[in-house]
Amino acid sequence: MIHQSRRKFIQTTVGATAVSLLITANKTLAISPQDVTAKPGFQIVFMQTDWGFEGSRDEFCAAVKKEGYQGIEVWWPGEDNAVKELFAAIKKHDLEIGFLCAGSGSNIGAHLDTFKKNLDAICSNNYKKPLYINCHSGKDFFTYEENKQILDYTITKKKSSGIPIYHETHRSRMMYAAPIAKNFAEKNPEIRFTLDISHWCNVHESLLADQKETIDFILEKTDHIHSRVGHSQGPQVNDPRAPEWAKTVDAHLAWWDKVVAYKKQRGEQMTILTEFGPADYMPSLPYTKQPVADQWAINVYMMKLLKKRYQ
């Protein structure tokens, strides 16, 4: 017979109980979109990025449609001919569109002026109303009051145009870190987010397990997802299909699951962009700069993975 000391028995029992309670708690707190009955109005629209695509607008839109996407997300072209070409292509291939918008300049005056100009152009276009506008809002080195000028303008513009306007969780921008974004959202409750949580994994050098309350707060205010997978040392894993990234992919899926579950509960439309990027975002080989994986194939893989998971 094997005997345990009283201390050993207590340590073993308490440890096992703690693990059991943690597992139970995680199961209880998890929100599975598969277990949520969608209210009328719920829909996911899958979008593709033109980032890294080499070819014409028409070729890009044809490829997007062929893969099974419903729309594209691009920067506002600016020039009249480029605008006409873009809208002609999405009309021809029956695609929805979402726009990226940002300002330029290292001082708030110039930055705000260019931001307003770009946002106004998108909202006033007579070709097609975009599904949303995704803003690379402000700068991480602007003060709260300076960045708030951008927020205030987007809130006003959203009301006058009827176009949803989101602020992306993005490095170097206003929402560069989780607690910063939470502070903005608590003080400005009308803010809605584009969740690109890959950036925060990089900024906070973790899978954010120590910021659960903050992350959950942001997830409830998310309407659009950039489905790139980041890690503690970078904003993009080299290939999400590789088994060594399974834990990291699962963490991102768990965050996205919660957003989808909230949307199903509310009966709201949401959008998901597949946004794995090309080199230098994509890791590449030295000297040749050959990407280590196929960007387009990865984005299509992510779209199909999430379609199967959520639809």
Strand numbers in spatial order across the main sheet: 1-2-3-4-5-6-7-8
* Total beta strand runs: 8
Beta fraction: 5-15%
Which class do the helix and strand fractions yield? alpha/beta
Order of helices and strands: HEHEHEHEHEHEHHEHEH
How many helical stretches?
A: 10
Largest sheet: 8 strands, parallel, barrel
Radius of gyration: 22 Å
Name the poorly predicted regions.
1-29
Give the integer mean of the pLDDT values.
Answer: 92
Helix content: 40-55%
Span between termini: 55 Å
Identify the overall geometry. globular
Task: Itemize the secondary structure elements and their pairings.
Elements: H1 6-29, E1 43-49, H2 57-67, E2 71-75, H3 80-92, E3 96-102, H4 108-124, E4 132-136, H5 144-161, E5 165-168, H6 178-187, E6 193-195, H7 198-203, H8 212-219, E7 222-226, H9 246-266, E8 269-274, H10 295-310
Helix pairs in contact: 2-3, 4-5, 6-8
